[in-house]
Design the sequence.
């Protein structure tokens, strides 16, 4: 019924401006006109159908639960009426009817407060109604958030059988408002099973052209465009390109090989008539799209066309502090590992949060939600549990890679369907139920099986990366070369990318880095694309820089010079070493404070003595200076983070002693209340309190009262801190306090936020009003000691 | 596309609660870098729309629309104005990502960046206002200062109407949460009246508070800062 790669199909033009021109009362919900003025809406559709449009977009763009709230109308009735209007006109010319579906109108996390699941549900409701009403296809359009359109596409795919067109809007810099690039959109939506991808709105045909060209180069899917009638004039609100010029500008699009074209804001049946007579039914130009191995986040595409480092640090294996962070649900610790690795040069981040005693799936979701809010590296989801993988895959904004499958048929059958459904890439380990075969040829045979199975599931081989498995030189010395040989075979004969965890090679031997660096270099020479390693190990990253020069990949040594020319010329960083710990804290010198604390501990000083006799008194002095205006906020925080570096050393030392002694002075629960997403004040308080030695259970922002009560109860925290920035969210602070009291919890409650006053804090039942972060530390001291 | 090349350092320091103490050289350098980083991450954008004003039904009716502005303060602000501009401005989501990410690794920089972002939206709104003022000047008119929903007795809920009437979600990516928080957070909505005569001065920065109908009730002022 819908043939997209055959002849150019003509889409319709603007609806909103036409409704306005017809003198209809637009109001808050123009979609309500489907019910109140169906003849007028149908007349507009008819005008487009008669002009030659092959696909009519129903007047359902904003017909979703959130936008219709307060109108007294349900999405279902508005959508049914809208589809009916379009179908009536379509029937007269044989055109198809599309359900148009715009953004929900509020931003998803982390930019806004809408959760992925809520967005999914809003779209599910809308597309189900559209399908019931007889839409021929669904168009998601004017989207700017990759995660939102992913929720929409999944909702359509999982609840209807209709073809789905996905279109996003780009600004002049080639990004959407949330930072999505054209290639990231193409990779993600093609992987998720969109039937066509496109660009609409925001700009005119001249401005969209380069983006359409890029889109055509990054996807094999049919491409469609609906530009505005040029750019709007802010004063007159009129668009600046007429039908003839518009049509002339579309010539180049036809040459690119796009499948459908129409118009967005400002276009009328006159535009569509010209498009139809010029391009309608013309054969779609065939496109040459190169096969690419690439991963992406919403804002960053990593093409695997050379050595790309996968950071391995987000993984609890063998890391006491990481395990501790997972148990305490300290996502901040994990985020820090992510950001540091990206700074050190990791281009992809492995995420493994498996620990037997925690809810791994929930943790995977939480880490992905937050991690993609602070780093733009694509993610590698690392788990053996399909449920964990699927819940992680749903929330990934972009195209991730799954770690991993192996040659065992049951594993392939369990994991590959997920990889296919969510459009991910996948790591295949060359082992099976019989273990790791010793010989290269045997490992190659497993790799071949994996690639074949992937292709049978519809996963192209460029999305498969084979891991020939590093064995430990101290145990299986003879097989080290087999790994390298196997990799060479896989690369040459299967033409797939290769991945390898590198540092396992040196286990059990001294000066491990010597072996790690040499093995990495050998592996790259044998065709390794994706080393999994710790990017904070400078020698490893240097080896990659050197390899890229020696193998003529870093042309003109540009990148090498960029990274290494400065270090030979620059003077050594100023030495701060040797400064007493207290001075480091007073001056806010983080690294120096860590070193000073480590030196004192090495001398055999008692950890608790360091805390009570040096760190806390130094922080107290900083606090006093802050209150008197001698220091201001950034300095207070600098000192706190310097003290934190000292605490970290002490924690490490206590962990190594395997004692039960702890520097913790007790737990405090912190949350920014429901409805409020401004959490900077809460975050500052967290930094300060942590550095006074309190354990902080940070519930984040937009936290429902029930969650605060639950956390206070579970943790037994004697103090709960709540923040709210806006007058509109203070009532939810009052409600949270009410529920804490009603729950019979004995904890004290402190509150803070720009619009609060001591009087108001008392009125809503808080025990303390914290006017700033320093005051919160004073309160904590009073309550917890 | 608009860009910000620098930010008023003294304003950034004011948002940080600086009271004139000596700033160490390293912190001074951090401040300079944060200003630069923030400017690079910001995508200043604005959209405005002009309406006629009619006194009706206990408020001011904006036409063509069904928006009725209520309250004494907005009435006073727009007294003598036959037209009003609705303005929406934002610096985009880039700064928020930067602030969020830096909070994890370098919280002191995060608070500096946050103060920079507050100043950046202020400067962005100034640029937008300048553009509208120039338009009015060309017609021989003046412009009132920026009056935002939530000031005085104009309900904060009016923000939703301003955003919708300006088509701000589509035009500049500005939306509201269910609890009426703007996203991106560093955004401004405002109403500016077209006055019959050119404004005599351009002193909007100096005495922002003295003209605010919320003075005396302002939580920011009570804490020694301003919004």
Sequence:
């Amino acid at each position: 019924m819908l043939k997209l790669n055959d002849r150019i199909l003509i889409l319709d033009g603007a609806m909103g401006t036409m409704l306005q021109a017809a003198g209809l009362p637009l109001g808050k919900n123009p979609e309500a006109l489907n019910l109140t003025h169906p003849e007028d809406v149908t007349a507009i559709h008819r005008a487009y159908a008669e002009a030659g449009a092959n696909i009519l977009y129903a007047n359902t763009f904003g017909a979703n639960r959130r936008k219709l709230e307060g109108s007294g109308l349900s999405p279902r009735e508005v959508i049914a009426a809208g589809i009916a209007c379009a179908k009536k006109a379509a029937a007269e010319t044989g055109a198809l009817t599309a359900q148009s579906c715009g953004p929900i109108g509020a931003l998803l996390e982390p930019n806004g407060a809408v959760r992925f699941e809520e967005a999914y549900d809003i779209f599910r409701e809308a597309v189900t109604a559209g399908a019931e009403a007889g839409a021929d296809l669904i168009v998601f359009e004017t989207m700017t958030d990759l995660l939102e359109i992913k929720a929409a596409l999944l909702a359509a795919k999982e609840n209807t059988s209709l073809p789905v067109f996905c279109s996003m809007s780009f600004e002049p810099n080639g990004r959407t408002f949330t930072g999505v690039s054209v290639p990231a959109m193409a990779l993600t939506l093609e992987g998720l099973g969109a039937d066509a991808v496109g660009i609409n709105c925001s700009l005119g045909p001249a401005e969209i052209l380069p983006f359409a060209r890029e889109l055509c180069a990054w996807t094999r899917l049919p491409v469609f465009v609906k530009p505005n009638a040029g750019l709007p004039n802010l004063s007159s609100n009129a668009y600046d390109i007429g039908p003839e010029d518009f049509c002339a500008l579309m010539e180049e699009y036809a040459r690119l090989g796009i499948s459908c074209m129409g118009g967005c804001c400002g276009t009328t049946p006159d535009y569509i008539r010209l498009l139809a007579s010029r391009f309608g039914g013309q054969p779609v130009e065939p496109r040459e799209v190169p096969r690419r191995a690439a991963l992406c986040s919403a804002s960053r595409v990593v093409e695997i066309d050379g050595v790309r480092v996968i950071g391995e640090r987000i993984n609890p294996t063998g890391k006491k502090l990481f395990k501790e962070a997972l148990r305490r649900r300290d996502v901040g610790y994990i985020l820090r590992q992510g950001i540091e690795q990206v700074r050190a040069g990791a281009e992809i981040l492995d995420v493994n949060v498996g620990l037997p005693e925690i809810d791994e799936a929930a943790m995977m979701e939480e880490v992905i939600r937050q991690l993609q809010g602070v780093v733009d590296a694509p993610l590698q989801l690392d788990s053996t549990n399909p449920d964990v993988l699927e819940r992680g895959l749903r929330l990934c904004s972009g195209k991730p890679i799954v770690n991993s499958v192996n040659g065992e048929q049951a594993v392939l059958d369990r994991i590959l369907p997920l990889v296919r459904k969510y459009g991910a890439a996948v790591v295949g380990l060359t082992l099976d139920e019989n273990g790791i075969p010793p010989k290269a040829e045997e490992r190659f045979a497993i790799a071949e099986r994996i690639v074949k199975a992937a292709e049978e599931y519809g996963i192209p081989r460029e999305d498969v990366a084979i891991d020939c498995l590093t064995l430990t030189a101290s145990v299986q010395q003879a097989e080290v070369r087999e790994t390298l040989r196997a990799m060479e075979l896989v690369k040459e004969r299967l033409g797939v990318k290769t991945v390898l965890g590198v540092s396992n090679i040196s286990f059990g031997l001294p000066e491990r880095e010597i072996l790690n660096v040499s093995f990495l270099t050998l592996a790259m020479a044998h065709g390794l694309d994706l080393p999994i390693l710790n990017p904070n190990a400078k020698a490893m990253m240097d080896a990659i820089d050197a390899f890229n020069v020696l193998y003529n990949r870093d042309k003109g040594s540009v990148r090498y010079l960029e990274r290494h020319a400065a270090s030979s010329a620059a003077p050594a960083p100023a030495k701060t070493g040797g400064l007493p710990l207290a001075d480091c804290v007073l001056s806010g010198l983080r690294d120096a404070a860590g070193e000073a604390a480590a030196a004192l501990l090495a001398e055999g000083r008692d950890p608790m003595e360091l805390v009570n006799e040096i760190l806390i008194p130094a922080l107290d002095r900083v606090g006093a200076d802050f209150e008197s205006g001698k220091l201001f906020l950034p300095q207070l925080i600098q000192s706190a983070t310097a003290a934190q570096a000292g605490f970290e050393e002490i924690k490490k030392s206590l962990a190594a002693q395997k004692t039960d002694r702890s520097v913790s002075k007790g737990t405090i629960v912190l949350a920014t209340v429901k409805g409020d997403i401004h959490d900077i004040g809460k975050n500052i308080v967290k930094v300060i309190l942590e550095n006074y030695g309190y354990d902080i259970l940070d519930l984040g922002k937009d936290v429902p009262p029930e969650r605060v009560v639950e956390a206070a109860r579970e943790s037994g925290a004697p103090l709960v801190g709540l923040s709210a920035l806006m007058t509109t969210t203070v009532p939810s602070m009052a409600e949270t306090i009410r529920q804490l009291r009603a729950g019979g919890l004995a904890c004290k409650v402190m509150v803070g936020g720009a619009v609060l006053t001591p009087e108001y804090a008392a009125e809503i039942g808080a025990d303390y009003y914290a006017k700033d972060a320093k005051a919160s530390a004073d309160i904590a001291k009073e309550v917890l000691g | 596309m608009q860009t910000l090349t620098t930010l008023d350092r003294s304003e950034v320091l004011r948002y940080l609660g600086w009271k004139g103490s000596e700033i160490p050289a390293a912190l001074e350098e951090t401040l300079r870098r944060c200003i630069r980083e923030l400017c690079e991450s910001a995508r200043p954008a604005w959209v405005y729309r002009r309406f006629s004003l009619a006194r009706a039904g206990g408020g001011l009716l904006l036409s063509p629309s069904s928006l009725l502005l209520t309250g004494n303060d907005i009435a006073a602000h727009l007294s003598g104005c036959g037209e009003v501009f609705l303005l929406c401005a934002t610096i985009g989501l880039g700064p928020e990502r930067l602030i969020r990410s830096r909070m994890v690794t370098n919280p002191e920089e995060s608070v500096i960046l946050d103060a920079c972002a507050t100043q950046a939206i202020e400067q962005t709104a100034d640029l937008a206002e300048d553009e509208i003022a120039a338009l009015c000047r060309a017609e021989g008119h003046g412009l009132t200062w920026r009056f935002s929903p939530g000031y005085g007795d104009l309900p904060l809920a009016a923000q939703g109407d301003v955003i919708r009437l300006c088509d701000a979600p589509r035009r500049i990516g500005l939306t509201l949460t269910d609890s009426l928080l703007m996203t991106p957070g560093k955004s401004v909505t405002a109403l500016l009246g077209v006055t019959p005569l050119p404004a005599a001065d351009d002193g909007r920065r100096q005495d922002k508070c003295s003209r605010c109908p919320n003075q005396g009730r302002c939580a920011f002022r009570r804490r020694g800062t301003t919004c």
